[in-house]
Amino acid sequence: MEGAVRRRPPEEGESYFMSMTDMMVGLLLIFIILLAYFALNLQSKTEELTGANRTRAEILNDLQQSLKDKGLQVEIDTKTGVLRLPDDVLFDKGRWELSDRGQAAISKVASAMVEVLPCYTTSNLCKEERSKHLIDAVFVEGHTDSDAMYGGMNNYGLSVRRAETTFTMLQFNQPALRGFLNKPAGQPGSAPILGLSGYGPDRPIAQGDSEAAKKRNRRIDLRFLMTTPSAGLDKDILRQER
Fold first, then answer.
1. Could you list the residue ranges that cross the membrane (predicted)?
2. Which residues face 50 on adjacent strands?
């Protein structure tokens, strides 16, 4: 027919280019979806971590207030999760046996723990809603100054013996603490939250050789560790949390 226009079929190169463009667009969409998924997952996990930190701070503040009401002043560090008991409150210099004053102090600490901690563990003493952030462990840590010991005992041994004495007396005063578990009994990893360790002079909180610095470094720390998510989290994030 006159006037008819013959259309030229698309060239092979143009068709190939269009196919490659469609494929790249598809891959980009998949990448964006995956990126959004991992961002949301990371946000959720990070919120769990920061939520656990907030819960730990609440625990420490409640313990400090409970002990203040009982007539015992203690120091807390919500960033590191530590409740600090000065050495001179508990022990005579160079000794690991609790003094009379120390026994009274540990009795108050044990009582405060039974009041505050049940709903942050799987204890059956919890009478309210259980926290979604549970305590994984409470380490009773012994610390000393750097002065040399005599008579067959060194600072590492002294710190362990003091931690052991404190650990034992906490449970002696409040046997219910033995039932404060990090997970329900029978589940893998279920264990009592209380543990102990001794560091000797290796973790000072005050620098120098003054008597004031040595007095601060001689102490018992109760270090609270919370159960936090770990699967799929970057190690740097977990390191910052600790």
1. 21-40
2. none
Q: What angle do CA 101, 75, 148 make, to 5 degrees?
A: 65
Give the dihedral sign, CA 17/22/28/34. negative
Q: Is residue 11 part of a domain?
A: no
Q: Are 81 and 224 in contact (CB under 8 A)?
A: yes
139: nearest Cα among 105, 88, 182: 182
Burial environment of residue 151 by CB neighbours within 10 A (0 to 12, 13 to 18, 19 or more) = exposed
**142-187 pLDDT per residue, tens:** 999 999 887 778 999 999 999 999 999 999 999 999 999 999 998 9
The mean pLDDT of 189-193, rounded to a whole number, is 94
More confident residue, 175 or 23: 175
The radius of gyration of the chain from alpha carbons, rounded to an integer in Å, stands at 29
What is the count of structural domains for the chain?
1
CA atoms of 80 and 75, how far apart (whole Å): 12
- Amino acid sitting at position 67: L
Q: Tell if the pTM clears 0.70, that is, is over it.
A: yes
Is residue 17 included in any domain, yes or no? no
**pLDDT score at 191:** 95
Give domain status of residue 152, yes or no: yes
**Integer Cα distance of 211 and 110 in angstroms:** 29
For the sheet containing 82-86, what is the strand order?
A: 75-77, 82-86, 219-226, 135-143, 194-198
Residue 26 falls within a domain, yes or no?
Answer: no
Instruction: Tell me the residue range of the domain where 200 lies.
Output: 39-241
